[in-house]
Amino acid sequence: MKQQELEKVKEYKYGFTTDIESVKAPRGLSEEIIKFISKIKKEPKWMLDWRLKAYSRLKNIKEPNWQKPKYPKINYQDLYYYSAPKSTNEKPKSLDDVDPKLIETYKKLGIPLKEQEKLAGVAVDAVFDSVSVATTFKDKLTEKGIIFCPISEAIQKHPELVKKYLGSVIPITDHYFATLNSAVFTDGSFVYIPKNVRCPMELSTYFRINASETGQFERTLIIADKGSYVSYLEGCTAPMRDENQLHAANVELIALDDAEIKYSTVQNWYPGDENGKGGIYNFVTKRGACRGKNSKISWTQVETGSAITWKYPSCILQGDNSVGEFYSIAITNNHQKADTGTKMIHLGKNTKSKIISKGISAGKADNTYRGLVDINKKALNSRNYTQCDSLLMGNKCGAHTIPYIKNKNSSSIVEHEATTSKINEEQLYYCNQRGLNQEEAVGLIVNGFCKEVLQQLPMEFAVEAQKLVGISLEGSVG
Amino acid sequence: MLEIKNLKASINNKTILKGVSLSIKPGELHAIMGPNGSGKSTLANVLSGKDGYEIAGELNFKGESLKDVPVEKRAQKGIFLAFQYPLEIPGVNTNNFLKTSLNSLRKSKGEKELDSLAFLKLVKEKSSELGIDEKILSRQLNVGFSGGEKKKNEILQMKILDPNLSILDETDSGLDIDALKIVAKGVNSSRNSKKSFLVITHYQRLLDYIKPDFVHVLSDGKIIKTGCGELAEELEKTGYKKLN
Fold first, then answer.
1. C-alpha dihedral (A32, A36, A38, A44), degrees to nearest 10
2. Tens digit of pLDDT for each residue in A274-283?
3. In a domain, A254, yes or no
4. pLDDT tens sequence across A292-338
5. I want to staple B150 with a disulfide (CB 3.0 to 4.6 A). Which of A169, B86, B92, B144 is the partner?
6. Distance from CA of B85 to the nearest CA of A (A)
7. What's the pLDDT score for residue A191?
8. Using the beta-carbon criterion (under 8 Å), do B92 and A437 form an inter-chain contact?
9. Do the Cβ atoms of B71 and A430 come within 8 Å?
10. Which listed CATH number (3.50.50.60, 3.50.30.40, 3.40.50.300, 1.10.260.40) goes with B2-243?
11. Which residue on chain A is closest to B160 by alpha carbon?
12. Which of A433, A440, A447 to probe by mutation at the B interface, max B CB count within 10 Å?
């Protein structure tokens, strides 16, 4: 692409929900586009080379197609790979410098940045489209030596950390969507917790998809150094959109000796309308490495949105005595589809993993738990406990449980429990008789069903999630 | 309070209630007795508004027809049913359930919702009044409760929700004498000139502790005899067969 075309692109005006003008790269995937993204991000050469390596790999691999929910073929040349709110060309020094319209949009989404600064002690690295626009609580974190910033900033300011860890859990040679992300990721969060530091607050990022037809490729990297602890919250909402939108994020977690990372997600992207039109494709790769001894990684997810959710937050238990946990609620209603679960790869001795999955299907939705427990030869005395419960509402939905279990040594123990039940009319009647209407009754019963997972969420998230569980199933009974 | 005229109910084309008429005034306690399969539980279900029945006849509560009024609206109007087999709802804390329930009733009456503190105070008061261990309230709703605990829980809910009309569907079945006394205490301590009760039972035993104003014998979907308290004692001696 010629330089003047790129210039033209920078001027490209595109009216969307808010009046902020987007800087957009033209449609399509090419080396030029990757160079454009890298340039606009002012990246060093090693980063561009890394992206291009991923891109050349991408050309030789195909999209996986073993998943249960099928989707129409994506034309990758028809997507936009970069767009940014124009007002961030000059970086805001504080929240006051942020475009008021942007703040307005966040408010509509229930993310009062300003109030959050005062309340709750949550630091927010907000992602609007693909560029981080505001980071709060930086000072407090800096005091402890914690780095919490957009990954684009980390690439410039902390190249040694990024070089060492980026792609060390999800290599650029991984599957199609992960490799695509490596080539074209635009922004995301970077967290580094130094040795023996306990992060004093929950770190939180709100993602939002705004520009139409823009694939979102976030990249998150969290490193917990020896003896440290961090809890990270990821919450997502999206406005109504008709076109299908691809979201292929990569999240990498690294826990060194005696470190612990807790990663919680509430995902509520646009699921499409009642007839299955529109909605987000949520094809996300999340993987954590318990690299050090006695380390722990815990994933908690509440997946209520998206037309298709296809993700397996996983733990590679390398360090001896390391622990991996996966707590999941996946709710599908109307025409939504989910194929989600986890992979627990036991490599170190005495490693433990626990999987609690709650799948809820309503309407014409289809919900699959797919999980792998792989206990290696050398992972002596390891343990896994898996519990998969499915709840069906109505008679047009589906629930499936597909566990893969590999135990390669005789000193390890694997347990798997699974149940499938239908929401009980008598239970609803009982609740109705106590004055609760149908929606309240369903919310109560489903929240009870999900309790073990909801309990894992940090307090302020748990309340939000409980409400979301009820809202997601509205109109599914009676 | 409750006016039933020639009430008929059928389910799956089978007629269970074949014309029941009953009038319960404020302050009255009526007992319904009858053999298995006579339609006692169906009557309780139909009064509460449970789905699935074909209904004919008149059903009025506080002077208003209950026709097409759904279960939760009837509950909000002040009808309470103590279930014969209270349902287990895993993961739902009993206290939380009760608070949600009480507040939705209060909301429907335009009253202020109770906060947790005020609610817990109310629960403490009512449970100690009945001699019920509060601990069951911090457990999951009816999950792993013994038969007696479930019934006691129903009575405690009745006390807390404070309905105008309480229907007890064989609440005494399967109870030991101590639990039976708690149930009786729950009813007796609630009786006043404004509250009405419909107590459904198999046995006269409960009526040793709860003195009914009227006793009705339901048999094959019809009330075949009505009398005062003594009728129950008579039935205990002679059985239902003689009445047919």
1. 90
2. 788 878 899 9
3. yes
4. 999 999 999 999 888 999 999 999 999 999 999 999 999 998 999 99
5. B86
6. 10
7. 94
8. no
9. no
10. 3.40.50.300
11. A434
12. A433
Q: How far apart are CA B55 and CA B74, in angstroms?
A: 16
Split into its structural domains, chain A has a count of: 1
Which chain B residues in 112-151 lie under 8 Å from chain A, judged by CB atoms?
A: 140-141
Residue A166 has pLDDT above 80, yes or no: yes
Lowest-pLDDT choice from A92-101, A137-146, A344-353, B233-242: A92-101
Report the 3 state secondary structure along A368-392: EEEEEEEECCCCCCCEEEEEEEEEE
Q: Pseudo-torsion of CA B185, B189, B190, B194, nearest 10°?
A: 140
Lowest mean pLDDT among A8-12, A274-278, B26-30: A8-12
The DSSP code sequence of A375-444 is: E-TT-TT-EEEEEEEEEE-SSS-EEEEEEEEEE-STT-EEEEEEEEEE--HHHHHHHHHTT--HHHHHHH
Alpha-carbon Rg for chain A, nearest whole angstrom, is 22
Q: Please, which residues bridge with residue A203 across strands?
A: A123, A232
> CB contact, 8 Å: B111 with chain A?
no
Burial class (CB in 10 A: 0-12, 13-18, 19+), B120: middle
Question: How many contacts (CB atoms, under 8 Å) link A and B?
Answer: 70
For A434, which residue in chain B has the nearest alpha carbon?
B101
B205: Cα separation from own chain's centroid:
17
Query: Could you say which residues from 438 to 477 on chain A have a Cβ atom under 8 Å away from some Cβ of chain B?
Result: 438, 440, 444-445, 447-452
What per-residue confidence (pLDDT) applies to A351? Answer: 98
A474 in a structural domain:
no
Between the CA of residue B152 and those of A57, A357, B122, B179, B192, what are the distances in Å? 68, 34, 16, 7, 21
Q: What is the pLDDT of residue A116?
A: 40
Q: In what order do the strands lie in the sheet with B214-219?
A: B79-82, B165-169, B196-201, B29-33, B214-219, B222-227
Quick check: A403 pLDDT over 60? yes
Cβ contacts of residue B180 below 8 Å, gap of 6+? Answer: B172, B205, B206, B209
User: Residue B130: in which H helix or E strand, if any?
Assistant: helix B116-130
- Among A256-265, A385-394, B39-48, B231-240, the range scoring the smallest mean pLDDT is B231-240
Q: Where are the domains of chain B?
A: 2-243
Higher pLDDT, A425 or A160: A160
- The amino acid at A305: G
Contact A50, A167 (CB under 8 A): yes
Look up the ipTM and state it. Answer: 0.94
Annotate A345-376 with b (16+ C-beta within 10 A) or e (fewer): bbbbbbbbbbbbbbbbbbbbbbbbbbbbbbbb
- The shortest C-alpha distance from A413 to chain B (Å) reads 27
Contact B101 A434 (CB under 8 A): yes
pLDDT tens digits, A183-234: 999 888 899 999 999 998 888 765 444 444 445 788 999 999 999 999 998 8
Query: What domain range includes position A83?
Result: 3-311
Q: What's the confidence (pLDDT) of residue B78? A: 95
* Tens-digit pLDDT profile for residues A233-269: 887 554 445 455 888 999 999 999 999 999 999 887 8
